[in-house]
Amino acid sequence: MNWTYVSLGLYFLLMIGIGLYAWRKSTSNSGEYLLGGRQLGPAVTALSAGASDMSGWLLLGLPGALYATGLVEAWIGIGLFIGAFANWIIVAPRLREQTEKLGDSLTIPQFLANRFPDHASILRIVSAVIIVAFFSVYTAAGLVGGGLLFQESFADLFNNVSMSDYMLGIWVTGGVVVGYTMFGGFLAVSLTDFVQGCIMVVALILMPIVILTNDGGWTAANATLTNINPEFLSMTQGLTFLGFVSAVTWGLGYFGQPHIIVRFMAIRSVKDVPIARNIGMIWMGVALLGAIGVGIFGRAYAAQNGIILEKPETIFILLANMLFNPLITGFLLAALLAAIMSTISSQLLVASSSLTEDFYRLFLRKNASETEMVNIGRLCVLAVAIIAAFIASDPESKVLGLVSNAWAGFGAAFGPLILLSLTWKRMTGAGAVAGLIVGAASVAIWIAMGWSSEIYEIVPGFILAFAAIILVSNLTKKS
Protein backbone atom coordinates (compact mmCIF):
# COMPACT_ATOMS: atom_id res chain seq x y z
CA MET A 1 0.00 0.00 0.00
CA ASN A 2 1.33 3.44 -0.94
CA TRP A 3 0.86 5.55 2.18
CA THR A 4 1.38 8.78 0.24
CA TYR A 5 -1.80 8.15 -1.70
CA VAL A 6 -3.61 7.08 1.48
CA SER A 7 -2.75 10.43 3.12
CA LEU A 8 -3.94 12.36 0.10
CA GLY A 9 -7.12 10.30 -0.12
CA LEU A 10 -7.92 11.07 3.51
CA TYR A 11 -7.26 14.76 2.86
CA PHE A 12 -9.68 14.82 -0.08
CA LEU A 13 -12.34 13.04 1.98
CA LEU A 14 -11.90 15.59 4.79
CA MET A 15 -12.43 18.49 2.38
CA ILE A 16 -15.55 16.90 0.91
CA GLY A 17 -16.84 16.13 4.42
CA ILE A 18 -16.46 19.77 5.46
CA GLY A 19 -18.31 20.80 2.31
CA LEU A 20 -21.22 18.50 3.14
CA TYR A 21 -21.33 19.80 6.72
CA ALA A 22 -21.47 23.41 5.50
CA TRP A 23 -24.10 22.49 2.91
CA ARG A 24 -26.41 21.33 5.69
CA LYS A 25 -25.48 24.16 8.03
CA SER A 26 -25.32 27.40 6.06
CA THR A 27 -26.68 27.55 2.51
CA SER A 28 -30.35 28.44 2.94
CA ASN A 29 -30.03 31.98 1.56
CA SER A 30 -27.57 34.29 -0.21
CA GLY A 31 -26.30 35.82 3.03
CA GLU A 32 -25.31 32.41 4.35
CA TYR A 33 -23.99 31.08 1.03
CA LEU A 34 -21.85 34.15 0.24
CA LEU A 35 -20.79 35.37 3.73
CA GLY A 36 -21.58 32.57 6.16
CA GLY A 37 -24.17 34.76 7.88
CA ARG A 38 -21.35 37.06 9.14
CA GLN A 39 -20.62 34.62 11.96
CA LEU A 40 -16.95 33.69 11.48
CA GLY A 41 -14.87 33.54 14.66
CA PRO A 42 -11.50 35.32 14.81
CA ALA A 43 -9.34 32.20 14.39
CA VAL A 44 -11.25 30.96 11.35
CA THR A 45 -11.27 34.47 9.87
CA ALA A 46 -7.51 34.87 10.36
CA LEU A 47 -6.45 31.54 8.89
CA SER A 48 -9.06 31.72 6.15
CA ALA A 49 -7.73 35.13 5.07
CA GLY A 50 -4.15 33.86 5.25
CA ALA A 51 -4.70 30.55 3.47
CA SER A 52 -6.82 32.09 0.71
CA ASP A 53 -4.11 34.74 0.28
CA MET A 54 -0.98 32.61 0.09
CA SER A 55 -2.05 29.86 -2.34
CA GLY A 56 0.40 27.65 -4.21
CA TRP A 57 2.59 30.72 -4.49
CA LEU A 58 3.74 30.15 -0.90
CA LEU A 59 4.94 26.57 -1.48
CA LEU A 60 5.79 26.78 -5.18
CA GLY A 61 6.40 30.31 -6.43
CA LEU A 62 8.29 31.89 -3.52
CA PRO A 63 10.58 28.91 -2.73
CA GLY A 64 11.25 28.56 -6.47
CA ALA A 65 12.26 32.22 -6.79
CA LEU A 66 14.56 31.95 -3.77
CA TYR A 67 16.03 28.67 -5.06
CA ALA A 68 16.86 30.24 -8.42
CA THR A 69 18.00 33.72 -7.38
CA GLY A 70 18.81 33.83 -3.68
CA LEU A 71 17.73 35.61 -0.53
CA VAL A 72 17.15 38.86 -2.42
CA GLU A 73 13.72 37.49 -3.39
CA ALA A 74 12.69 37.62 0.29
CA TRP A 75 11.84 41.31 -0.17
CA ILE A 76 8.55 40.19 -1.73
CA GLY A 77 7.65 38.41 1.50
CA ILE A 78 8.64 41.42 3.60
CA GLY A 79 6.49 43.72 1.49
CA LEU A 80 3.56 41.34 1.75
CA PHE A 81 3.87 41.09 5.54
CA ILE A 82 3.80 44.88 5.93
CA GLY A 83 0.89 45.20 3.50
CA ALA A 84 -1.14 42.50 5.26
CA PHE A 85 -0.65 44.19 8.64
CA ALA A 86 -1.76 47.55 7.24
CA ASN A 87 -4.77 45.84 5.68
CA TRP A 88 -5.88 44.46 9.07
CA ILE A 89 -5.42 47.89 10.69
CA ILE A 90 -7.00 50.16 8.08
CA VAL A 91 -9.47 48.09 6.07
CA ALA A 92 -10.71 45.24 8.29
CA PRO A 93 -12.68 47.10 11.01
CA ARG A 94 -14.05 49.77 8.67
CA LEU A 95 -15.15 47.32 5.99
CA ARG A 96 -16.89 45.06 8.51
CA GLU A 97 -18.81 48.00 9.94
CA GLN A 98 -19.66 49.83 6.73
CA THR A 99 -20.73 46.84 4.62
CA GLU A 100 -23.31 45.89 7.23
CA LYS A 101 -24.44 49.48 7.76
CA LEU A 102 -24.79 50.22 4.02
CA GLY A 103 -27.58 47.86 3.02
CA ASP A 104 -25.97 44.69 4.42
CA SER A 105 -23.75 44.41 1.34
CA LEU A 106 -22.78 40.84 0.42
CA THR A 107 -20.16 41.63 -2.24
CA ILE A 108 -17.56 44.32 -2.84
CA PRO A 109 -19.41 45.66 -5.94
CA GLN A 110 -22.62 45.81 -3.87
CA PHE A 111 -20.83 47.76 -1.14
CA LEU A 112 -19.48 50.25 -3.70
CA ALA A 113 -22.94 50.66 -5.21
CA ASN A 114 -24.46 51.36 -1.78
CA ARG A 115 -21.61 53.72 -0.91
CA PHE A 116 -22.06 55.70 -4.16
CA PRO A 117 -25.73 55.28 -5.14
CA ASP A 118 -25.55 57.90 -7.91
CA HIS A 119 -23.19 55.60 -9.86
CA ALA A 120 -24.46 52.30 -8.50
CA SER A 121 -25.10 50.40 -11.73
CA ILE A 122 -21.87 51.27 -13.51
CA LEU A 123 -19.81 50.55 -10.39
CA ARG A 124 -21.37 47.12 -10.00
CA ILE A 125 -20.90 46.29 -13.67
CA VAL A 126 -17.30 47.49 -14.01
CA SER A 127 -16.11 46.02 -10.72
CA ALA A 128 -17.83 42.69 -11.41
CA VAL A 129 -16.22 42.48 -14.87
CA ILE A 130 -12.78 43.15 -13.34
CA ILE A 131 -13.35 40.58 -10.59
CA VAL A 132 -14.42 37.81 -12.98
CA ALA A 133 -11.65 38.58 -15.52
CA PHE A 134 -8.75 38.71 -13.06
CA PHE A 135 -10.04 35.84 -10.93
CA SER A 136 -10.15 33.61 -13.99
CA VAL A 137 -6.41 34.23 -14.37
CA TYR A 138 -5.76 33.98 -10.64
CA THR A 139 -7.65 30.69 -10.34
CA ALA A 140 -5.70 29.40 -13.34
CA ALA A 141 -2.48 30.00 -11.36
CA GLY A 142 -3.75 27.67 -8.64
CA LEU A 143 -4.71 25.01 -11.17
CA VAL A 144 -1.23 25.23 -12.70
CA GLY A 145 0.11 24.35 -9.25
CA GLY A 146 -2.21 21.34 -9.07
CA GLY A 147 -1.11 20.23 -12.53
CA LEU A 148 2.57 20.49 -11.60
CA LEU A 149 1.99 18.48 -8.43
CA PHE A 150 0.39 15.59 -10.31
CA GLN A 151 2.96 15.78 -13.09
CA GLU A 152 5.89 15.56 -10.66
CA SER A 153 4.50 13.15 -8.05
CA PHE A 154 1.76 10.90 -9.41
CA ALA A 155 2.91 9.84 -12.86
CA ASP A 156 3.22 6.20 -11.76
CA LEU A 157 -0.34 6.20 -10.39
CA PHE A 158 -1.88 7.53 -13.61
CA ASN A 159 0.47 6.09 -16.24
CA ASN A 160 -2.38 4.27 -17.98
CA VAL A 161 -4.62 7.33 -18.25
CA SER A 162 -5.00 8.75 -21.75
CA MET A 163 -4.70 12.44 -20.84
CA SER A 164 -1.47 13.94 -19.55
CA ASP A 165 -0.68 13.87 -15.85
CA TYR A 166 -0.59 17.67 -15.90
CA MET A 167 -4.13 18.08 -17.25
CA LEU A 168 -5.41 15.29 -15.01
CA GLY A 169 -3.98 17.20 -12.04
CA ILE A 170 -5.86 20.31 -13.13
CA TRP A 171 -9.18 18.47 -13.41
CA VAL A 172 -8.79 16.53 -10.16
CA THR A 173 -7.74 19.62 -8.18
CA GLY A 174 -10.46 21.74 -9.74
CA GLY A 175 -13.07 19.01 -9.34
CA VAL A 176 -12.60 18.61 -5.58
CA VAL A 177 -12.54 22.38 -5.00
CA VAL A 178 -15.62 22.95 -7.14
CA GLY A 179 -17.40 20.16 -5.25
CA TYR A 180 -17.11 21.58 -1.75
CA THR A 181 -17.38 25.21 -2.90
CA MET A 182 -20.53 24.65 -4.95
CA PHE A 183 -22.39 22.87 -2.19
CA GLY A 184 -20.95 24.34 1.01
CA GLY A 185 -20.54 27.99 0.00
CA PHE A 186 -18.63 30.49 2.14
CA LEU A 187 -18.76 28.45 5.34
CA ALA A 188 -17.23 25.44 3.58
CA VAL A 189 -14.54 27.61 2.03
CA SER A 190 -13.69 29.25 5.36
CA LEU A 191 -13.63 26.02 7.39
CA THR A 192 -11.51 24.22 4.79
CA ASP A 193 -9.21 27.28 4.71
CA PHE A 194 -8.75 26.98 8.47
CA VAL A 195 -7.81 23.30 8.26
CA GLN A 196 -5.61 23.94 5.22
CA GLY A 197 -3.88 26.86 6.94
CA CYS A 198 -2.98 24.60 9.87
CA ILE A 199 -1.60 21.92 7.53
CA MET A 200 0.42 24.48 5.54
CA VAL A 201 2.15 26.07 8.52
CA VAL A 202 3.08 22.68 10.04
CA ALA A 203 4.59 21.59 6.72
CA LEU A 204 6.56 24.85 6.39
CA ILE A 205 7.98 24.45 9.90
CA LEU A 206 8.82 20.77 9.40
CA MET A 207 10.53 20.83 6.01
CA PRO A 208 13.36 23.38 6.63
CA ILE A 209 14.23 21.60 9.90
CA VAL A 210 14.47 18.21 8.15
CA ILE A 211 16.50 19.69 5.26
CA LEU A 212 19.08 21.11 7.66
CA THR A 213 19.20 17.85 9.63
CA ASN A 214 20.00 15.92 6.45
CA ASP A 215 22.21 18.69 5.09
CA GLY A 216 24.79 18.88 7.89
CA GLY A 217 23.21 21.89 9.57
CA TRP A 218 23.45 25.59 8.91
CA THR A 219 27.26 25.64 8.65
CA ALA A 220 27.35 23.10 5.83
CA ALA A 221 24.42 24.78 4.03
CA ASN A 222 26.07 28.19 4.29
CA ALA A 223 29.35 26.84 2.88
CA THR A 224 27.54 25.17 -0.03
CA LEU A 225 25.53 28.27 -0.90
CA THR A 226 28.66 30.46 -0.68
CA ASN A 227 30.38 28.16 -3.20
CA ILE A 228 27.41 28.48 -5.55
CA ASN A 229 27.40 32.26 -5.29
CA PRO A 230 29.19 34.32 -2.62
CA GLU A 231 26.21 36.68 -2.56
CA PHE A 232 23.45 34.04 -2.62
CA LEU A 233 22.51 34.92 0.97
CA SER A 234 22.72 38.66 0.39
CA MET A 235 19.49 40.63 0.40
CA THR A 236 21.01 43.25 -1.89
CA GLN A 237 22.66 41.05 -4.54
CA GLY A 238 21.95 42.68 -7.90
CA LEU A 239 19.14 44.71 -6.32
CA THR A 240 18.38 47.99 -8.06
CA PHE A 241 16.17 50.72 -6.66
CA LEU A 242 13.36 49.85 -9.09
CA GLY A 243 13.78 46.16 -8.27
CA PHE A 244 13.45 46.93 -4.56
CA VAL A 245 10.34 49.04 -5.17
CA SER A 246 8.83 46.29 -7.35
CA ALA A 247 9.37 43.70 -4.62
CA VAL A 248 8.12 45.54 -1.54
CA THR A 249 5.13 47.09 -3.30
CA TRP A 250 3.52 43.67 -3.58
CA GLY A 251 2.11 44.67 -0.18
CA LEU A 252 -0.02 47.38 -1.83
CA GLY A 253 -2.08 44.67 -3.44
CA TYR A 254 -3.68 43.57 -0.17
CA PHE A 255 -6.07 46.52 -0.01
CA GLY A 256 -7.74 45.42 -3.24
CA GLN A 257 -7.92 41.61 -3.09
CA PRO A 258 -11.66 40.75 -2.96
CA HIS A 259 -11.08 37.14 -1.85
CA ILE A 260 -9.11 38.39 1.20
CA ILE A 261 -11.06 41.45 2.29
CA VAL A 262 -14.37 39.60 2.00
CA ARG A 263 -13.23 37.74 5.15
CA PHE A 264 -13.32 41.06 6.99
CA MET A 265 -16.97 41.41 5.97
CA ALA A 266 -17.81 37.99 7.43
CA ILE A 267 -16.14 38.20 10.85
CA ARG A 268 -18.54 38.00 13.79
CA SER A 269 -17.99 41.57 15.04
CA VAL A 270 -15.58 44.50 14.85
CA LYS A 271 -14.39 43.64 18.37
CA ASP A 272 -13.02 40.33 17.06
CA VAL A 273 -10.78 42.05 14.46
CA PRO A 274 -7.72 42.67 16.72
CA ILE A 275 -7.71 39.02 17.86
CA ALA A 276 -7.98 37.80 14.28
CA ARG A 277 -5.23 40.23 13.21
CA ASN A 278 -2.78 38.89 15.81
CA ILE A 279 -3.49 35.27 14.90
CA GLY A 280 -3.25 36.02 11.19
CA MET A 281 0.03 37.92 11.36
CA ILE A 282 1.72 35.25 13.51
CA TRP A 283 0.59 32.59 11.04
CA MET A 284 1.81 34.63 8.09
CA GLY A 285 5.20 35.37 9.64
CA VAL A 286 5.89 31.71 10.40
CA ALA A 287 4.65 30.60 6.96
CA LEU A 288 6.82 33.13 5.09
CA LEU A 289 9.94 32.20 7.08
CA GLY A 290 9.26 28.53 6.35
CA ALA A 291 8.85 29.16 2.62
CA ILE A 292 12.10 31.14 2.56
CA GLY A 293 13.82 28.26 4.37
CA VAL A 294 12.53 25.73 1.84
CA GLY A 295 13.90 27.72 -1.10
CA ILE A 296 17.29 28.58 0.42
CA PHE A 297 18.06 25.30 2.19
CA GLY A 298 16.55 23.33 -0.68
CA ARG A 299 19.11 24.88 -3.00
CA ALA A 300 21.91 23.79 -0.67
CA TYR A 301 20.52 20.24 -0.46
CA ALA A 302 20.22 20.01 -4.26
CA ALA A 303 23.81 21.19 -4.75
CA GLN A 304 25.23 18.78 -2.16
CA ASN A 305 23.46 15.84 -3.76
CA GLY A 306 24.14 16.73 -7.38
CA ILE A 307 20.48 17.38 -8.18
CA ILE A 308 19.71 19.57 -11.19
CA LEU A 309 16.20 20.98 -11.02
CA GLU A 310 14.78 22.16 -14.34
CA LYS A 311 11.71 23.74 -12.69
CA PRO A 312 12.73 25.58 -9.49
CA GLU A 313 9.05 25.93 -8.55
CA THR A 314 8.93 22.19 -7.86
CA ILE A 315 11.60 22.22 -5.10
CA PHE A 316 8.98 21.62 -2.37
CA ILE A 317 7.63 18.59 -4.25
CA LEU A 318 11.13 17.19 -4.82
CA LEU A 319 12.10 17.49 -1.16
CA ALA A 320 8.80 15.99 0.02
CA ASN A 321 9.39 12.92 -2.13
CA MET A 322 13.10 12.48 -1.27
CA LEU A 323 13.39 13.23 2.44
CA PHE A 324 10.32 11.81 4.13
CA ASN A 325 8.50 8.61 4.93
CA PRO A 326 5.65 8.07 2.38
CA LEU A 327 3.02 8.81 5.03
CA ILE A 328 4.65 12.16 5.82
CA THR A 329 5.18 12.81 2.12
CA GLY A 330 1.44 12.47 1.65
CA PHE A 331 0.89 15.02 4.43
CA LEU A 332 3.34 17.46 2.80
CA LEU A 333 1.77 17.09 -0.62
CA ALA A 334 -1.60 17.59 1.05
CA ALA A 335 -0.18 20.85 2.43
CA LEU A 336 0.66 21.92 -1.11
CA LEU A 337 -2.81 20.98 -2.28
CA ALA A 338 -4.19 22.87 0.72
CA ALA A 339 -2.35 26.01 -0.34
CA ILE A 340 -3.64 25.66 -3.88
CA MET A 341 -7.20 24.70 -3.07
CA SER A 342 -7.78 27.26 -0.31
CA THR A 343 -7.14 30.11 -2.71
CA ILE A 344 -9.00 28.60 -5.66
CA SER A 345 -12.14 28.06 -3.57
CA SER A 346 -12.11 31.63 -2.26
CA GLN A 347 -11.64 33.07 -5.73
CA LEU A 348 -14.34 30.93 -7.28
CA LEU A 349 -16.84 31.97 -4.63
CA VAL A 350 -16.09 35.70 -4.95
CA ALA A 351 -16.29 35.54 -8.76
CA SER A 352 -19.53 33.59 -8.48
CA SER A 353 -20.99 36.12 -6.03
CA SER A 354 -20.29 38.95 -8.48
CA LEU A 355 -21.92 37.09 -11.34
CA THR A 356 -25.02 36.26 -9.30
CA GLU A 357 -25.53 39.43 -7.25
CA ASP A 358 -24.12 42.02 -9.67
CA PHE A 359 -25.32 40.58 -13.00
CA TYR A 360 -28.03 37.99 -12.58
CA ARG A 361 -30.04 39.66 -9.80
CA LEU A 362 -29.37 43.16 -11.09
CA PHE A 363 -30.30 42.66 -14.76
CA LEU A 364 -32.03 39.33 -15.26
CA ARG A 365 -34.06 38.33 -12.20
CA LYS A 366 -34.49 41.14 -9.70
CA ASN A 367 -37.13 39.17 -7.80
CA ALA A 368 -35.31 35.84 -7.82
CA SER A 369 -35.87 33.70 -4.74
CA GLU A 370 -33.06 32.94 -2.30
CA THR A 371 -33.02 29.28 -3.37
CA GLU A 372 -32.70 30.30 -7.02
CA MET A 373 -29.81 32.67 -6.24
CA VAL A 374 -27.92 29.98 -4.34
CA ASN A 375 -28.34 27.54 -7.25
CA ILE A 376 -27.26 30.14 -9.81
CA GLY A 377 -24.23 30.84 -7.63
CA ARG A 378 -23.29 27.16 -7.77
CA LEU A 379 -23.51 27.13 -11.58
CA CYS A 380 -21.33 30.25 -11.75
CA VAL A 381 -18.68 28.53 -9.59
CA LEU A 382 -18.55 25.74 -12.17
CA ALA A 383 -18.41 28.15 -15.12
CA VAL A 384 -15.49 30.18 -13.76
CA ALA A 385 -13.61 26.97 -12.90
CA ILE A 386 -13.93 25.72 -16.49
CA ILE A 387 -12.61 29.02 -17.89
CA ALA A 388 -9.67 28.94 -15.46
CA ALA A 389 -8.86 25.34 -16.44
CA PHE A 390 -8.67 26.40 -20.08
CA ILE A 391 -6.26 29.24 -19.21
CA ALA A 392 -4.13 26.83 -17.13
CA SER A 393 -3.90 24.20 -19.89
CA ASP A 394 -0.41 25.40 -20.91
CA PRO A 395 2.04 23.35 -18.80
CA GLU A 396 4.73 26.01 -19.29
CA SER A 397 2.69 28.56 -17.32
CA LYS A 398 4.56 30.09 -14.39
CA VAL A 399 2.68 30.18 -11.09
CA LEU A 400 4.41 33.32 -9.85
CA GLY A 401 3.90 35.12 -13.17
CA LEU A 402 0.15 34.44 -13.28
CA VAL A 403 -0.27 35.40 -9.62
CA SER A 404 1.72 38.62 -10.03
CA ASN A 405 -0.45 39.78 -12.95
CA ALA A 406 -3.75 39.10 -11.17
CA TRP A 407 -2.46 40.48 -7.86
CA ALA A 408 -1.43 43.73 -9.56
CA GLY A 409 -4.73 44.01 -11.41
CA PHE A 410 -6.80 43.75 -8.24
CA GLY A 411 -4.40 45.85 -6.19
CA ALA A 412 -4.47 48.75 -8.64
CA ALA A 413 -8.17 48.59 -9.51
CA PHE A 414 -9.60 48.09 -6.02
CA GLY A 415 -6.81 49.07 -3.61
CA PRO A 416 -7.05 52.88 -3.82
CA LEU A 417 -10.82 52.61 -4.27
CA ILE A 418 -11.38 50.57 -1.08
CA LEU A 419 -8.94 52.66 0.98
CA LEU A 420 -10.45 56.01 0.00
CA SER A 421 -14.08 54.85 0.07
CA LEU A 422 -13.59 53.77 3.70
CA THR A 423 -11.58 56.78 4.88
CA TRP A 424 -12.40 59.82 2.68
CA LYS A 425 -15.91 61.21 2.98
CA ARG A 426 -15.51 63.60 0.02
CA MET A 427 -14.95 60.81 -2.47
CA THR A 428 -17.61 60.69 -5.22
CA GLY A 429 -19.11 57.98 -7.39
CA ALA A 430 -17.48 59.44 -10.50
CA GLY A 431 -14.13 59.28 -8.73
CA ALA A 432 -14.76 55.64 -7.84
CA VAL A 433 -15.51 54.72 -11.46
CA ALA A 434 -12.41 56.58 -12.63
CA GLY A 435 -10.21 54.76 -10.13
CA LEU A 436 -11.53 51.35 -11.15
CA ILE A 437 -11.04 51.92 -14.87
CA VAL A 438 -7.67 53.68 -14.64
CA GLY A 439 -6.24 51.10 -12.23
CA ALA A 440 -7.26 48.05 -14.26
CA ALA A 441 -6.42 49.61 -17.63
CA SER A 442 -2.98 50.85 -16.60
CA VAL A 443 -1.99 47.39 -15.31
CA ALA A 444 -3.25 45.71 -18.50
CA ILE A 445 -1.37 48.20 -20.69
CA TRP A 446 1.81 47.89 -18.61
CA ILE A 447 1.77 44.10 -18.99
CA ALA A 448 0.94 44.25 -22.72
CA MET A 449 3.80 46.67 -23.40
CA GLY A 450 6.30 44.45 -21.61
CA TRP A 451 7.27 47.10 -19.07
CA SER A 452 6.84 44.80 -16.07
CA SER A 453 10.51 43.82 -16.30
CA GLU A 454 11.41 47.41 -15.43
CA ILE A 455 9.03 47.92 -12.51
CA TYR A 456 6.13 45.87 -11.19
CA GLU A 457 2.87 46.96 -12.81
CA ILE A 458 1.10 47.51 -9.50
CA VAL A 459 3.25 50.61 -8.85
CA PRO A 460 2.06 52.76 -11.78
CA GLY A 461 -1.43 51.26 -11.58
CA PHE A 462 -1.87 52.07 -7.89
CA ILE A 463 -0.48 55.60 -8.23
CA LEU A 464 -2.55 56.46 -11.31
CA ALA A 465 -5.76 55.05 -9.81
CA PHE A 466 -5.22 56.92 -6.54
CA ALA A 467 -4.61 60.16 -8.44
CA ALA A 468 -7.64 59.60 -10.69
CA ILE A 469 -9.97 59.13 -7.71
CA ILE A 470 -8.77 62.29 -5.98
CA LEU A 471 -8.79 64.40 -9.15
CA VAL A 472 -12.23 63.32 -10.41
CA SER A 473 -13.75 63.46 -6.90
CA ASN A 474 -12.57 67.05 -6.45
CA LEU A 475 -13.94 67.98 -9.87
CA THR A 476 -17.33 66.41 -9.17
CA LYS A 477 -17.72 67.02 -5.45
CA LYS A 478 -21.05 68.23 -4.17
CA SER A 479 -21.49 71.24 -1.90
TrEMBL record:
Pfam families found in the cross-reference section: SSF
Keyword Transmembrane helix part of the UniProt annotation: yes
Chief localisation class: membrane
Subcellular location: Cell inner membrane; Cell membrane
BP GO terms, sorted: proline transport
Membrane topology value: Multi-pass membrane protein
Keywords, sorted A to Z: Amino-acid transport, Cell inner membrane, Cell membrane, Ion transport, Membrane, Sodium, Sodium transport, Symport, Transmembrane, Transmembrane helix, Transport
Transmembrane segments: 6-23, 74-92, 125-150, 170-189, 194-212, 232-255, 275-302, 314-340, 375-393, 399-422, 429-449, 455-475
Recorded GO MF terms: L-proline transmembrane transporter activity; proline:sodium symporter activity; sodium ion binding
Function according to Swiss-Prot or TrEMBL: Catalyzes the sodium-dependent uptake of extracellular L-proline.
Protein name from the UniProt record: Sodium/proline symporter
Organism: Sphingorhabdus lutea
